[in-house]
Design the sequence.
């Protein structure tokens, strides 16, 4: 687990106003790479800070996303997943289990880019490879 001082410094450098709740959430989610839905993140955070509300979690994750501390991934229409690894990388999503995982760097290469509408530019490219368990 990363120390509170390191987490607090990371939040400040990202331009996030530091509060006790944000530090608790950041310490739980940013200590190592993980992929969590809001509900999963709330469960993890409440182990150390049971008073954190659902609204605080949603607002903080949105703030962290806006400050590039987490990436927001939409793996299926009913579930947003937050990834604490913000470096460019791709994912696989198991439609049977809901598991989201990182594709190892170098295992998938993207060459070229699509022709964009006039006045548009690429912000980022996210690839999610949807997989399922083998059928017997």
Sequence:
């Amino acid at each position: 687990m990363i120390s509170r001082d390191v987490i607090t410094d990371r939040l400040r450098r990202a331009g996030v106003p530091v509060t006790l709740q944000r530090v608790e959430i950041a310490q739980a989610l940013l200590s190592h790479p993980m992929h969590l839905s809001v509900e999963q993140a709330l469960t993890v955070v409440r182990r150390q800070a049971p008073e954190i509300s659902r609204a605080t979690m949603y607002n903080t994750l949105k703030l962290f996303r806006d400050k590039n501390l987490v990436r927001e991934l939409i793996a299926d229409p009913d579930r947003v997943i937050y990834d604490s690894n913000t470096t460019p990388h791709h994912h696989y999503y198991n439609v049977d289990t809901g598991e989201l995982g990182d594709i190892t760097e170098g295992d998938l290469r993207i060459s070229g880019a699509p022709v964009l509408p006039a006045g548009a530019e690429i912000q980022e490219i996210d690839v999610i490879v949807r997989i399922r368990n083998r059928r017997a």
Summary: The two ends are 41 Å apart (CA to CA). The chain has four helices and six strands. The mean pLDDT is 91.
